[in-house]
Amino acid sequence: MDPTALNSGDTAWMLTATALVMLMTVPGVALYYGGLVKKENVLNTLFMSLIAFAITSVIWVIYAYQLAFGTDVGGLIGNGANLFFYGITSATLAPLAPTIPITIYAAFELVFAAITVALISGAVVGRMKFKAWLLFVPLWITLVYVPISHWVWGGGWLAKLGALDFAGGTVVHLDCGIAALVLCIYLGSRKDVRLLPHNLGYSVIGAALLWFGWFGFNAGSALTAGGLASSAFLATNTATAAGMISWMIIDIIKTGKPTVLGAITGAVCGLVAITPACGFVTVTGALIIGFATSFFSYYAMTWLKPRFGYDDSLDVFAVHGISGLWGALATGLFAAPFINSLGVGLFYGNPMQMVWQLIDIGTVVVWSGGWTLVLAFVLDKTIGLRVEPEEEREGLDISLHEEAGYRI
Fold it and tell me: What's 154's DSSP letter?
């Protein structure tokens, strides 16, 4: 079989995987976040995810895909050819996935970009101006996500160095976690810092949709319908289940009772942590990664956050930043060459893989954190970043959108 010829099975799988990842943002992230906020902010919270997806969808086909995944220029950026997809036909194959059309490959990478920026919103719900969010999304995608995705996935310098990230531990989760931390610190604390989920049922549905859609996220990153996708699928489910169970154990030890919020939080931590590793590790590795990650994220929520006083509303940094960081490191430990010949971790005889993983992590932290701070400063000094105190107290659904999520 020609490895550079269109494969209908691969194409069908990637169409399905792309739709699954879209489901993760709208409605997955939207419902997961929407249920955790007070009822006066539910529509604004849902809207932040919806509009992030729409804005990213437009700029991705105009220029962002071409810069992220175009022919590499000096290891830094894509060449920007075929803006607006000019000259691309339905028969054009993807250079980085030569058995599927470039159009579906671009769509698959689009939904990754969209969920990454949508996840940031959880750190600032209830206190960020919506018009500031409308500008933040395209600027952040352009200045932060596009370069990082090219460096790791588009043939850039981190890929050439040897950094491993199968489906987005650093590109997606550490990236958005650091941005969320910087943005919430810059905005300052909410007037009411209590976490009072107004409808935990929404969040359970959102978490379930994330779990379901994540199979497209991780197994789809194999870019073919074969054994590697199957391995990533099983590793993903294993780590997620382990993360949920370990968080429940923590709840029982700490409070004597398991909680639904803790269970779904642990599941999401497991999903995040296995993301960079799913195409490289065994089931045993997935169990260890998923079980351990809840302890790291729980520590970030209950010790780091109170100690340093930042108000990350829905704990984006603890869940995505910390679990993404652990997952990237764990990839360097557990990557098994008999799962994927591209990855050989420390435990299989390649200590240099940890060095490359640390370089990847450090690069993402500096680049995402630095540019997010610049964007926050510029937006704050021009159009303003934070809503007025009375708007925050009233709730953003009414004050910013003149709508209410509920009639009573």
Answer: S
264-296 pLDDT tens trace: 999 999 999 999 999 999 999 999 999 999 999
Q: Which amino acid is at 44?
A: N
Tell me, which fold does domain 8-401 have in CATH? Ammonium transporter fold (1.10.3430)
Q: Is 138 exposed, middle or buried (0-12, 13-18, 19+ CB in 10 A)?
A: middle
Q: Which residue has the tokens 């895909």?
A: 65
Asked whether the beta carbons of 42 and 396 are under 8 A apart, the reply is: no
* 56 alpha-carbon distance from chain centroid: 14
CA distance linking residue 168 with residue 150, whole number of Å: 12
Q: Please calculate the CA angle 148-270-278 and round it to the nearest 5 degrees.
A: 60
Q: Please say whether the beta carbons of 81 and 66 come within 8 A.
A: yes
Structure tokens at 185: 């610190």
User: Which helix or strand (DSSP H or E) is residue 286 part of?
Assistant: helix 283-299
292-331 pLDDT, tens digit each? 999 999 999 999 999 999 999 999 999 999 999 999 999 9
DSSP secondary structure letter of residue 321: I
Q: Tokens 């750190």 map to which residue?
A: 123
Task: Give the β-pairing of 97-101 and 77-78.
Answer: unpaired
